[in-house]
Write a structure and sequence with these properties.
alpha+beta, Tetrahydropterin Synthase, Chain A, 3 domains, 4-stranded antiparallel sheet, 3-stranded antiparallel sheet, 8 helices, 9 strands, 58% helix, 21% strand
Length: 288
């Protein structure tokens, strides 16, 4: 191949590579810094197609969107000397790309600095509050104070902190175990009291029921005795009336009743003199 053509092809290839290296795109979700030998040459805030000097200038793209970072759980001592384990998260974004690059240089270092600042401010603010205020008190006021102080310290890093929130507030494990044991003891005490009250109420109900049963049985017996007495009185009156009207018939019916009562058991054996008055009606039937 002609050496001239080879040189021409090399020149075209190098030109194509240089052209590809000189153009770059900034997305709408990004910011960019053009660096010349590590120093900021210019800052790009708008999306589009841009040119750089190939092999001399580098492009550092940074996130424009809001980012989130979780802080490690930290143990905090409240003003009333109560210990808490606080777990928080932070929402932030890069406000000034140049200042961000000059202050922290990378996302990893930015996260480390941000976590350190947030934990320090959490300890400082929460240490001035009582446990009750932190857990169920004016939490919004505390978080607003924390956010204000964090933003003051991160502004010089080119970072805009949007929000700081406490995800979870727990007692240390030793305290949690003690609280659990105390709560369990209180629940056991309440259960014993409720069972004792139930037993007492059950005994009252059972005693009242027994009393009512006794009263009902006594009333029934009394009424039964009264009715039996009235029946006996009516029977005696009937017998008396019958005797007055026909003494012979009355004697006959009384004898029949005596016979029935004496002979109702088939195994009954009576040994009597045939001439006794008890058998007078049998003797009359036999004579007839």
């Amino acid at each position: 191949m002609n050496p001239v053509k080879i040189v021409a092809l090399l020149v075209v290839a190098l030109g194509g590579i240089a052209a590809s290296q000189s153009l770059f795109v900034v997305d709408e979700t990004e910011k960019a810094l053009v660096l010349s030998l590590g120093k900021i040459d210019r800052q790009i805030a708008e999306p589009g197609l841009y040119v750089r000097v190939p092999f001399y200038q580098q492009v550092l793209k940074l996130e424009r969107r809001i980012l989130e970072s979780d802080s490690e759980a930290e143990e905090i001592v409240a003003r009333d000397k109560k210990r808490l384990v606080v777990d928080s998260f932070t929402r932030w974004r890069i406000a000034d790309a140049a200042e961000f690059y000059q202050s922290v240089g990378s996302y990893a270092r930015a996260l480390t600095r941000l976590e350190s600042i947030v934990n320090s401010v959490n300890k400082e603010v929460l240490a001035q509050s009582n446990l009750q205020d932190i857990i169920s008190g004016d939490r919004e006021a505390l978080m607003a104070n924390i956010l204000k102080r964090v933003r003051e310290q991160t502004a010089k890093l080119g970072i805009d902190v949007v929000d700081v929130r406490i995800k979870r507030t727990d007692l240390p494990k030793a305290n949690s175990d003690a609280v659990f044991r105390r709560m369990r003891a209180e629940r056991d005490k309440e259960a014993r009291e409720i069972r004792a009250q139930g037993t007492e109420e059950s005994d009252k109900i059972r005693a009242d029921a027994d009393r009512q049963v006794t009263i009902l049985l006594a009333t029934a017996r009394k009424k039964g005795e009264q009715m039996r007495g009235e029946g006996d009185a009516l029977a005696i009156k009937a017998y008396a009336d019958a005797y007055q009207k026909d003494p012979a018939f009355y004697g006959f019916t009384r004898s029949l009743e005596a016979y029935r009562n004496s002979l109702k058991n088939p195994d009954t054996l009576l040994v009597l003199d045939p001439n006794v008055d008890f058998l007078q009606h049998f003797n009359k039937v036999k004579a007839e």
